[in-house]
Structures are given as C-alpha cells and as structure tokens.
Amino acid sequence: MSTSFADPTALSHADLEEGTLFAPKFDAHGLVTAVAQEAGSNRVLMVAHMNAEALRLTIETGEVHYYSRSRKKLWKKGESSGEIQKLVEMRTDCDQDVVLLLVEQTGRGAACHTGRKSCFYRIVEDTETLRQSGEARLFDPAEVYKVQ
Amino acid sequence: MSTSFADPTALSHADLEEGTLFAPKFDAHGLVTAVAQEAGSNRVLMVAHMNAEALRLTIETGEVHYYSRSRKKLWKKGESSGEIQKLVEMRTDCDQDVVLLLVEQTGRGAACHTGRKSCFYRIVEDTETLRQSGEARLFDPAEVYKVQ
Fold first, then answer.
1. Which of A21, B13, B55, B76 has a CA between 20 and 30 Å from the CA of residue A130?
2. What GO cellular-component annotations does this UniProt entry give (chains A, B) (predicted)?
3. Residue A143 lies in a domain
4. Which ipTM score applies to this complex?
C-alpha cells in the first residue's frame, strides 16, 4: 500500500495555508502530531504522533492508528486494550503539520493507558506542582495490559 | 530568571505518571507541545511549542507564551496582533511531554495568524483533499501584520 501524500514543499505558502490539497508536513522523523478530541464534549483525550502509514490507515479505515515513538511501530489504538477510536472528523491546521481528530472513544471510554478517559488528568498549579483533577479510572491497567 | 523545571529523568515511571511533581519532558530541541483550547467551547484553537522560558512565563504571568520554531525566539502570543491568550487552566499528560492550555482568546478572538478563530479551518476529506469548514476571518492578516 502506498503511503505517499502530496509534498508540502512543492506548494506555495498560500496553497499550503489556503488550498484544498492535503499535503501533511511530516517532521524530520516522518511524523505529524495528532490531537484526539472526544466528539460531543470536545474534551482533548490524548496527543500522539502519526507516520504516513498511520495517517493513511486512519483515513481509509476510519479507525485511528498512531505511530508509537517508544515502541517504534505502527499502533492501532485499542489493539491491546479494546479502546478503539472511531474517526468522526479529521482536520489539519494552517501549515498542515498537525491533525486534529474528532473521535468516538469506544470500549470503556478510556483513551489513556492509565485507564482514564483523558491523558490530561493533572492540573499544573505552579512551576513545580501538579494537582489530580479527580478523573476516574475506567479500567485497571494492570488487568488490561497483562503482557507488559 | 531561572527557567529550570524538575528533571523528568530523575523520576520513576510511576512518579512521572501519577505524582504531583511537575517535571515537563522537553524534547531534543528543548520543547514541549502545547495545545490551546478555548475555554467554554473547548474548541482547539492551535497547536504550538514552548521552551522552558515560554512555559515558565505562561505559568507566572497568566498570558500564554510560545517558542517560535521558524523565528527561533520566544513569542508572546498576541504581541503583534493583539490576540493575547489569557490562561484559565493548564494541564499536562501522563508522560508530561504535552501541556493542554484552556485559554480565553482576547482581541478579536482569532488564534490563527490567518485571522480565523482556530488554525483548524480545513476538514480532511480523503488522503488528497481538504474542504474549507467555512470559518470566518475575524481580521485581515495583511492589515494586522504590516511588517511582514
């Protein structure tokens, strides 16, 4: 399967920002940043990365795929946990180096590997201190990721 | 002014993910990803980066500062356009390499340099095609950024 996309460096600044050709600007590691937002609430669930293959699979299958920088491999969200993300809408930003995903978070509704709905379960109080927001765990990670 | 934060590599995995010490994990370029969301609507306005100085200034002044990778300098959001972002709440994610900002977008309410509220004004239709979401321009960038 081809994973090639249009080349953003071949576009004028105006075409990149105002045009209708999708030309994602992958970084030096071949990745774009992906922000997943829960459809309905608009809560930000997680921020991760996609390589070209993950981006194409997400668009073509409607199920969200990322690229794991730590495991250095394609990662279908929910493949271990069952917490599949169904794509409702994808947007890109002015310079096309970020994709914003509106998703339906299936399974127990937990996007975070800690078992919480969102990875953003701590509030920055000051330059040294975090405060738990009180976000409930929807699953027990020790139970779900038994292989780890 | 010191811009040092706690060192995430000195923390255990459990402390990094579940603890209350803020230890932002800056990347090889000294940056964390910052996602700005509009308070109230929860719309994602923009995605940018912060170095330690930008992060500290944002926390200490309550006005959002980023680091411009293209201009290679600290960038107080709105310094040219007047579109200051007032910080309502900051969160970080499980591995502390992203900050999520809930902001009040002041000025004309446009976070994007194109004059639109959000940078995410185009919908990805398929692997080649974008569609304008119809987001209105709240200012004329040619008028606002006269120096450029």
1. B76
2. cytoplasm
3. no
4. 0.95
Domain span at B48: 26-111
As given in the structure block, the two tokens for residue B24 are: 């932002």
**Structural domain count of chain B:** 1
Q: Are strands A32-38 and A98-105 parallel, antiparallel or unpaired?
A: parallel
Residue A148 pLDDT > 50: no
Range list of H helices, chain B: 13-18, 52-61, 141-144
Alpha-carbon separation of residue B24 from A142, B11, B67, B107 (angstroms):
25, 11, 15, 30
Cβ A18–B114 below 8 Å, yes or no? yes
What are the helix and strand counts (H, E) for chain B? 3, 8
> Is residue B4 in a domain?
no
Ligand-binding annotation for A112, yes or no, is yes
Largest Cα–Cα separation, chain A: 51
From CA B61, how far away is CA B137, in angstroms rounded? 29
- Using 50, 70 and 90 to split pLDDT, how confident is the model at B3? low
Of B35, B127, B133, the CB nearest to A56: B127
Looking at residue A43, which CATH number applies to its domain? 3.10.20.810
- Give the number of C-alpha atoms closer than 13 A to the C-alpha of residue A126, restricted to the C-beta side: 1
Q: Which of B30, B27, B39 is nearest to B90 (CA)?
A: B39
Q: In the predicted model, is pLDDT for residue A1 greater than 70? A: no
Residue A117 lies in a domain: no
Between strands A65-68 and A73-76, the pairing is antiparallel
CB A22 within 8 A of CB A6: yes
Could you tell me if B35 lies within 8 Å of chain A, comparing CB atoms? yes
B140 CB neighbour count, 10 Å cutoff? 10
